[in-house]
Amino acid sequence: MKIDKAAIKNEFQRHDRDTGSCEVQVALLTKEIEALTAHLKANHKDHSSRYGLLRKVQNRRNLLNYLKRENEEGYKALIAKLGLRR
Question: Residue 25 and residue 20: Cα distance in Å, rounded?
C-alpha cells in the first residue's frame, strides 16, 4: 500500500515547489483511493478503512467541484489524465 507521493507530485505540480495545489491533492487522493479499494477487496470486514475510504472520496469530490468552478479547462484535463468518470 506504499504510494510514491514524490512521483505523483512531480507529475501534477504547477511549478517546481508546488505541493498543495488542487491538482496534486486530487491525484494523491486518487492513488490512495485506489490502494484502499484494493485493500478492501481482500479485507471486506475492515470497516474503519471503509470509513477512511469514504472520507477520501468525499474530499476528492469537494476538490474536484472547486476546480471545476474555478478552472474548467484544468478540471477537464485532470479527470482525463486520471481517468475519472465525472
Answer: 6
Domain of residue 65, CATH code: 1.10.287.10
Report pLDDT digits (tens) over 55-72: 999 999 999 999 999 999
Number of domains in the chain: 1
pTM of the model: 0.92
Domain containing 27: what range?
5-82
Amino acid type, 48: S
Sole residue written with cell 477487496 = 41
CA distance linking residue 86 with residue 75, whole number of Å: 10
Spatial separation of the C-alpha atoms in residues 6 and 18, rounded to whole Å: 11
